[in-house]
Amino acid sequence: MSALQVLRACLGSHVRQTIFHGVARPPAVSTRLPHARPFASDKGKEKENATADADEPKDEPAADDAAAAPKPEADDVAAKMQAKQDEIVDLTGRLRYAQADFINLQRISAREKEQTRDFAISRFASELLETVDTLSMALRAAPRSPPPSNSSPSTTPPPYFQPSSQPSDALLQGVEATHRLLLQTLAKYGISPFDPTGDKFDPNLHEALYSVPLPGKTPGEVLECQKPGYMIKDRVLRAAQVGVAAEQPVEQKNDAES
Predict the structure, then answer these.
(1) What's the pLDDT tens digit per position in 192-225?
(2) What are the two backbone dihedrals, phi and then psi, of residue 189, each rounded to the nearest 5 degrees?
(3) Cα–Cα distances in angstroms (integers) from residue 133 to residues 124, 136, 163, in the given order
(4) What are the b/e assignments for 9-39, b being 16+ CB within 10 Å?
């Protein structure tokens, strides 16, 4: 039998069976799922999940830890700012100290300048006081003539030196005028004399030449002023040379009481 004949016999048998049953059977449907390759699909899903996990943001605790951790740049800036603040405070303190020192220096300079101006003639005035003392001793030692008995009024103005019958009177008046003029000149520069007779002895103002006990006198009282003292402004130019009363011995006290 040939192949063609076999094919025809098979087709005829198949047609008869179809007519006999009335309806042709539908083709069998495969029950297999589309993903016939399970291993490949699982690997793809794992890759997708890994990509999704990478794309998702980190958890909040991790973000808080990152925010809480200080950045190195912020720390450097804060340290520099603190250093600048400390430097400003230091420089401000130095400036205030410098200003205070400058003000004190100005005050000291002004006071020294004033003292230099006031006491510049101290040495010269000290030397000139010897001349004043000499004129004073000459006035105390010079004899004075009694005043004239004729006191009739005169119509002519008196001259600078009053007329006198003795030549020594005119000389004495000249010495008095010189002494008075010299004291007035010293007074213009703040130099003034003082006589401490009767005052209590002060070693800052007085120079004791002798001390003697006298009844009725308080110990330490100035009895006599041989040379007056002089002050220049509020400073002692020369101390007064004085005699001081001393305390009486016990025997003299008992004799005076008895």
Answers:
(1) 999 999 899 999 999 999 999 888 888 889 999 9
(2) -105, 20
(3) 15, 5, 27
(4) eeeeeeeeeeeeeeeeeeeeeeeeeeeeeee
Of 120, 83, 111, which Cα lies nearest the Cα of 237? Answer: 120
Tell me the β-bridge partners of 206: 240
Q: Give the closest residue to 229 by CA, choosing from 87, 116, 126.
A: 126
Per-residue pLDDT tens for 31-74? Answer: 554 444 544 455 555 555 655 555 555 555 554 555 555 567 88
CA 245 to chain centre: 52
- Cα dist from 13 to 28, 96, 207, whole Å: 20, 126, 173
Token pair for residue 181? 């003029």
pTM exceeding 0.85: no
